[in-house]
Amino acid sequence: MSTSVEHSPVVQRDDDASIVVRGGGPLSGTVEVPGAKNSVLKLMAATILCDGAFELTNVPDIADVAIMGDLLAAIGVDMVRPAAGEVVLDNTGRITPVAPFELVERIRASINVLGPLLARCGEVRLSMPGGDDFGARPIDMHVAGLEAMGAEFTFADGDLEARADRLHGADITFDFPSVGATENLMTAAVLADGVTTIDNAAREPEIIDLCEFLVAMGARIDGIGTSTLRIEGVTSAELAPVRHRTVPDRIQAATYLAACCVAGGEIDVVGARGDHMAMLLDRFGDMGLELTTSDSGIHVAARGRSRSIDVATLPYPGIATDYKPLIITMLAVADGVGIVTENLYPGRFRYVEELQRLGADVRTSGHHAVVRGVARLSGAPVRAHDIRAGAAMVVAGLAAEGETRISGVHHIDRGYDDLVGRLRSVGAAIDRT
Question: Distance between CA 183 and CA 105 in Å, rounded?
Fold first, then answer.
């Protein structure tokens, strides 16, 4: 396969773009959930581990996929898109273990090249990753785990450098079930000498998806889906490229459920995995949503005003922090008072000021937000500060009288595959300018 290809983004960044929402009648119809951003980027990074052409399907048409493709191209893995929802990643073996700053700074998932590059090349240099700005998310657990496996790190001028003649197995216990650290150490352990165990590992569906991808390649991983992973190292020659379907995006699925909650109506969210969202669906049921799960997706009906509840974010299978902006938006028009406690990223309340501009009664203090529901929000100009907060502003617009204009939609483009078109397909009055 030729490595002379273009890497233009699927979604071009447009800082002048905005989304205009006009609150109105109930939603009705079917909306399909694409593949998960939080999985596909990690699958893409794992293609560093061995040579050959990998095929990924159910790939969301989002800006972050294009950015990760450009980052991998700089490293030596080229990406082409033969059809909608598909990418082919060609690793020719000519890997350069340096991640350029101008790409790393744009996407936090760039940290996921650390483990594969260190395991494959024995060295790596990359800048500290960027992405959404909602509080410090250090990589100390990544570094400590890789040091236990024999890596040596240095930090200088904003760059991280790591070396290891050959990684070796280690017994690692996390203080917190970090998703990123689990992914990095797991991919590094695939090519390490001996056996690595990771206790208190993250258990998210996206972790399982990455495990299944690695096992299909030839990795030896036990305990998939549990808090203890055991990885027996293999050589790069024992791995082979595979074709893999990306797991559906549970955050996008929750967005359409939240939209139905605030706008009313009845929709089918095709492709959504109810088993990946069990606790969230239980809480949505407590709010009064009628939910039915099946092999094809989730059917939701919102009849009348929802009820307020109290919610706390916790590691999976608890309520994910990515759901929280949507939940606070739902509570903003629910009947009663709800308290939301953020246990993971306490800085992630910037969007509350935007909801307040729409007339939401939300008060924050430390890790907590107290939301007193009002019957209806009022349209106003607001800004998307990050991916999920931006989606929450769109959902809020569906619950507002008049017109809500959301700027900063390039954040939404990073994680949502045609949010405007999908909502319009179920009757939302929404446009992109």
Answer: 19
